[in-house]
Write a structure and sequence with these properties.
Length: 239
């Protein structure tokens, strides 16, 4: 009897672990396909979450323009509502805009109705501000369930994850942050994959989140990568 109880508990633990892996690990495809990256090791997508955000998004646009790099911005609808002019500036600069929900909930725990409402409202706010049809979504925290991915696709949104986590929300030194990103890119190149870099130009808790470390690190990376042969793409290059 004890053996059966232990075995049942072990199986339950393994099942729970597998579910959490599928729901939150960024490269997991167990719940359905998401965009990660292509097979060209020289392709790099800079992606930025949680904007638009004063003043860092506009400063980031200046840095990207200086190096003639296009990026992907996953915008929060609540911030687009408050700063539509920044969303329009991102669009005018030629970058790709994506859906990051209105209020940044974990969709793994949200009701199906809330999931649908968050996605529909965010796309509407971005499209009203910029005129650009939104075709990509990044779930906050990377959290998803099978029905979350299904709902996104029903709404014409392709889910996008990432394969380099910069942890820039906790970074204090731009040189350390840049080095972490370079290590992630090298790891992907060894695995013969392109790199989809997760960075942040804002913070989901409030407008005005300090992203000066990320801004400086991006400048260091772009300067260091100049002439390297890397090709910067937006996530629509991969799916």
């Amino acid at each position: 009897m004890l053996t059966k109880v232990v075995s049942a508990g072990l199986l339950t633990g393994l099942s729970a672990g597998a579910y959490l892996y599928a729901a939150q690990w960024p490269t997991s495809q167990l719940f359905g396909r998401t965009v990660l990256a292509g097979s060209d090791v020289d392709e790099v997508a800079l992606t930025f979450d949680d904007g638009p955000n004063d003043p860092y998004t506009m400063q980031l646009l200046e840095s990207l323009d200086r190096w003639q790099v296009r990026a992907t911005f996953f915008l929060m609808g609540s911030y687009v509502r408050q700063r539509p002019e920044i969303a329009r500036a991102i669009h005018r600069a030629g970058h790709l805009l994506g859906n990051h929900t209105v209020s940044h909930p974990s969709l793994m725990w949200a009701s199906p109705a809330q999931v649908r409402e968050e996605l529909i409202a965010c796309s509407a706010l971005i499209e009203d501000a910029t005129g650009e049809v939104v075709r990509y979504v990044r779930p906050p925290f990377g959290a998803r369930r099978p029905d979350v991915l299904r709902t996104a696709r029903e709404l014409g949104l392709m889910p996008v994850m990432w394969n380099v986590t910069a942890y820039d929300w906790e970074a204090t030194d731009p040189h350390d942050l840049a080095a972490r990103v370079r290590r992630g890119l090298l790891h992907n190149q060894k695995r013969r994959r392109g790199s989809n870099l997760l960075l942040h130009d804002g913070g989901h808790r409030e407008l005005g989140t300090d992203r000066s470390v990320t801004l400086s690190a991006v400048g260091l990376l772009l300067e260091g990568w100049a002439g390297s042969g890397l090709r910067f793409v937006t996530v629509d290059a991969w799916g």
